[in-house]
Amino acid sequence: MTEGDEPVGRTRALVGFVLAPLVFAGLWVAPLEMAAPAHRLAALLGAVVVLWVTEAIPMAMTAFVGVAATVPLGIASAAEAFAPFADPLIFLFVGTFMLAQAIFFHGLDRRFAFAMLGLPGVGARPRRVLVVVGIVAWAISMWISNTATVAMMLPIALSLLAVLEAHGEAPRGYAAALLLSVSFAASIGGLATPVGTAPNLIGLGFLRREVQVDVPFFSWMALGVPVAAVLIAVALATLARDARQGSVPAGHLATLIARERRELGAWTPGQRNTVLAFAATVLCWVVPGVVAVLRGADDPTYRWLQATLPEPVVAVLGAGLLFVLPVDLRRLEFTLPWREAVKIEWWIVFLYGGGIALGTLAFKTGLAEAMGRSLTAFLGVRSPLGLLATSTLLATVLSETTSNTASANMVVPVVIAFARSAGIDPVLPVIAATMGASLGFLLPVSTPCNAIVYGTGRVPLRAMMRHGLVLDVVGIVTIVAVVAGLGPLVLGR
Fold first, then answer.
1. Which residues contact 478 (CB under 8 A, 6 or more apart)?
2. Range of 251's domain?
3. 476 contact partners, CB below 8 Å, separation of at least 6
4. Residue 303 belongs to a domain
5. How confident is the model at residue 4 (pLDDT cuts 50, 70, 90)?
6. Looking at the whole model, is its pTM more than 0.85?
7. Helix/strand/coil for 326
8. What single string gives the DSSP state of each residue in 395-464?
9. Nearest to 480 by CA among 438, 446, 431, 443
């Protein structure tokens, strides 16, 4: 948070502390026509949503406390409340984060980034550098968290800017365009794979638990990659248009990139081991989906692969390779030391567990069904396409004011209940809403990616909002078109 944002942050937190108990009390005494446990959960969820939106306390602790409070409020037993924290997708998070930590620890992120920037002709033109920086961030964020991608790419982008500014006036608008390319590309890349960003796993988890539908890794990519490809093309085209070329001695960029690549040195054993573990994990994630596409979902081989190598198990096994592939066998040093492994983003794991716990209780108590009936009557949406578009729009709007993870946790259970109440298959609307939850491009508070680059002081708010609004609109249209058009072909629904 920048100094200018601190008063805003304090004000939001104060609003949260005051509003949360008022919302809880108001819903507690409201004459809602539902069973007592559902009524109590509605009051609790109202307070949780306020705390998530205002971030008055850390979001992970809001989820933890919200789940714990269901026990003394008589909503659920302790076993029921905390059972979702052992959901298999929790372990998909843990395994994926450990693989990402190994990539950071051994510097594979910078090696990959500078290899892309060192492609012939790239370092000679600032606009080409902007495009390649965006593509690199987009590709990396398919496999590791969007926030971590920005944290890795931002120093590279700032180094490139420093070279431009040290050897002449930087092209007008270039600094903002370059930094926004990092932020937007990281958010967009997360859409492409199930493990690219937390909302994807949240949506898939609810589909598996509440709808009994498993979406294979490759099947998600068949929908996510086209959406991500359209959005990255639009983002980079509009940003490059604003980054006027100017008269900067661009050869200095190529010099900087070449120097950084030389300083990386030769490949280390740790880097080679990490690539091996990562490649094996991705291969096992993708192969079952490829078999399903080629031979059908009823093929015995596909069913065996799906049962034997589900994504969470593959992620844990892949992470396990990091602890057995040696870097120095004589000294018993392995690819990922435990002191580095424990640095993963545990707060997301806890937030995800709390979110699915509250969502699961919403279905068990009947609260989600009641909300679905109410929304169906209020909105009057009856067609699958109408629900798909409404779900995408709702998730996108909500993601502008709260985190993508919280947006998915709040919207997806409601979409499922809404679909059931309207007699519509919920699978495609849930996928669309899940993707819409990652479309927060408009404001610095919309995503950590935006907040990080805005905090540099080099990105005017007007520029972020102008480009972000375009991406939000294009994103909603693209998601609806791709999911409605390709979804029935890919998923057979």
1. 227, 230, 231
2. 88-341
3. 389, 392, 393, 396, 436, 439
4. yes
5. very low
6. no
7. strand
8. HHHHHTTS-HHHHHHHHHHHHHHHHHHHT---HHHHHHHHHHTT---SSTTT-HHHHHHHTTT-S-HHHH
9. 431
